[in-house]
Design brief:
5 helices, elongated, two-stranded antiparallel ribbon, mainly alpha
């Protein structure tokens, strides 16, 4: 029994020693694991330091570039202001060459600075309006005075700059050339003419050449365009109340939705009697071949002897219009208002939508 106990005791002692040895191994392994973790963190930080330094350098560079760009913009604005002031001074010179230099300087500013574009447009329009002369005086002269006549060189240069500009930079700026003597205005090149929304009311444009011009929604009330060339001009939505277009060439023009109504009625200040105004659009002997006149307002318009071959007048208001001796060959009047329209001796061959002849 004593021998067995001794053997069991020995086995228990051996097991306790093995357990203690394993515990010792576990306790001794823990410091080595913590050491490895610490070493890994130190290594990770050491590897990351160059990247963090590069990121800081990049951020610093970005801040420097931003500051440099800001300073450059301020410098550019200052330069443009100096150029603008110098150009304005040149416009006031008595020398034609210096004035032309001022105009071309402003043209460069328009190209370089979208912010200053509307201001330059207003300055050039005011210059042209002032130096071209007043239509109030020119309209007193006979029609022959418009032949072989063009505005002076600096006025032509200013207007040429305006018509070649970028309208999308105008920011709603209206080019005001109203009551201006622009007889014989024409341009030497065939580049596009951009004048949407321009104010040419009461202007004298006799014998002018604005072929192909963009004059959408332009104000042309009481403008004199006699014998002018308006071939394929875009006058859609334009206001032409009281305008004179005698013998004007409007072949292929877009007059869709144009307002050519008369001035309406007013009261006589002495008798109080309501009288009809007669300032209706005058298109006598005008050429409107192939023109788009759909939905235009042309009540009481004077179209005597006008040529409207292949013109599209669908939906146009021609109430009380005078179409005596007009050439209406193949014109389309379907849906047009023709109440009271005078069609005596009009050429109707192939015309559609006209009332039956009596």
């Amino acid at each position: 029994m004593a021998g067995k106990l001794s053997a069991d005791g020995l086995r228990r002692i051996a097991r306790r020693r093995r357990v203690r040895r394993r515990g010792y191994v576990s306790r001794s392994a823990a410091p080595r694991s913590e050491g490895r973790d610490r070493t890994q963190w130190i290594t990770l930080i050491a590897v990351s330091l160059p990247g963090l330094a590069a990121l800081g350098a990049l951020l610093f560079t970005w801040m420097q570039v931003g500051q440099a760009s800001k300073e450059l913009r301020i410098s550019e604005h200052g330069q443009i202001t100096s150029r603008f002031n110098a150009a304005i001074d040149n416009l006031g010179s008595e020398s034609l060459d210096i004035r032309l230099g001022g105009i071309y300087a402003l043209q460069r500013i328009m190209q370089d600075s979208a912010r200053d574009h509307p201001t330059v447009v207003s300055v050039l329009a005011a210059f042209a309006q002032r130096h071209a002369g007043s239509s109030t005086e020119s309209l007193k002269e006979p029609s022959e005075s418009a032949y072989n006549r063009t505005p002076r060189a600096d006025v032509r240069a200013a207007i040429a700059t305006l018509v070649r500009r970028r309208p999308d930079r105008d920011s709603g700026t209206v080019i005001d050339l109203s009551k201006t003597d622009l007889r014989g205005l024409r341009f030497t090149d065939r580049a596009p003419i951009h004048l949407p929304g321009v104010n040419l009311s009461d202007a004298d444009l006799r014998s002018a050449d604005l072929s192909g011009a963009d004059l959408r929604k332009a104000s042309l009330g009481y403008t004199n365009l006699d014998e002018s060339s308006l071939h394929e001009v875009n006058l859609s939505g334009a206001e032409l109340m009281g305008a004179s277009l005698v013998v004007a060439n409007l072949t292929g023009a877009n007059l869709r939705g144009a307002d050519m109504t008369c001035g309406g009625f007013e009261g006589d200040p002495e008798t109080g009697e309501v009288i009809e105004l007669t300032d209706c659009v005058d298109l006598e002997y005008a050429f409107l071949d192939g023109a788009d006149v759909r939905n235009a307002k042309m009540s009481q318009a004077d179209l005597r002897h006008a040529t409207l071959n292949d013109a599209d007048l669908r939906g146009a208001d021609l109430t009380n219009a005078n179409l005596t001796n007009a050439d209406l060959t193949n014109a389309d009047f379907r849906g047009a208002k023709l109440t009271g329209a005078e069609l005596k001796d009009a050429k109707r061959t192939g015309a559609r939508g006209l009332p039956q002849e009596n």
